[in-house]
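Example record

One chain of 413 residues, shown exactly as stored in the release files.
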Amino acid sequence: MDEGLQKRVRLLHGGESLTAASPESHDNALGHSAEILRARSRSGTVGPRIPPLLSGSARIRSPPSGTRSTRGIKGLAASSGAGASMSTSHGAGAMSSSQGAPRRVVRTAARAEALLQAALGQRNSRALHSALPVARAAGCSSQVSFVLARDLLERLEASEAASLAELQALRRREPWIFSQDLDISEGIVFDQMKREDEACREAETGASAGTRGLPTVPRWLIVFDFDRTIAREHMWGTYRDAPLEAIPMSDQTFVDIAALRAVVGSIRGHGGQVAVATFGRADVAGKALRFAFGPDHGIHITTPADYPDPGHRPVDSEGGAAGKGKDLALGGAGKVSRCPEGSSWLGNKNRQLVALAKMHGVAASDMMLLDDDAHNIQEALKAGVDARHTPAGLTKAVLDKVEKDLGLLPLRT
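Predicted structure tokens for this chain:
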């Protein structure tokens, strides 16, 4: 066999020198391979087809079925546990991918750390739930950021559980229970709401505002989300901290302004009340409500800024933060900061629903929540609230169904 054919045969066998137990078996192997090449040549195949690496130690393992890309949290979690090294050989040289393993570990750990930092910045239980398993799989469980994230998640979950339990336990109160007998403290800012209620009673009964009385208990309290529920777009996501005067407002701002006006009037006309619970800005929601209903709309708006940070670290007897690690939510002298508008620190709408229910004197079963966020709906349902997912916002069809289910007659056409 000529030397050129032998080279092509070696290529067919992965570039390795053929060895055999005897010269005869070696010649047989070469002859068999040569016949393969001649057959390919006769059939029109151009050049030898180089097969995959064939030696036992050189096989490239395919990833297990179901393995996802390392892009994103789930992909990173799937890939971070794969620690098998892979080696390949070609010709006389061999290279082990274990040399690149430390780099992969570093990259995986860096990604996990980035996810942890992002989740800590969001200060949100859902983000932490996603980031912590990834960091644990990447071997970051001893990092300071991991410990901080785990402790923060525990505090956030405890706060969310307390809000759920409180909402479940609320009972409808009798009319005209004075506000000093009603615990709506917890650092919630409701001075404006109280003033509106006092003015309402004064207008209805002629009583002095100094009696600090609350209005009659509504038949229902219908709570609307704002961004992508009342409003067509996510106003916070679009405008963030833009000056209020720079934020446009028109009929097109709303999903259906005519249907909204009609249903709010119908609810109030039948002894119900409405409120807005948003994670966004109160001034933007207020501007929209003034546009839709006028300056005296009387619709209460609650935002995260009404509530203390649920993830704050407990304060010890000396006025410092208990435990190790810096907690960004603690101000000077252990003062707990409030949640910023635009944040999801509260985790869901239950804390806001508790405050609104206490203010209006209703139980969870007297409330309805309409929100485009399915998570907020799921958590409110656990408390007994009639919560409805509205991914398309407050369309006429959605609001017609609300009226029908509340028994408001005559129904709009």
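Notes: The CA atoms of residues 63 and 82 lie 10 Å apart.
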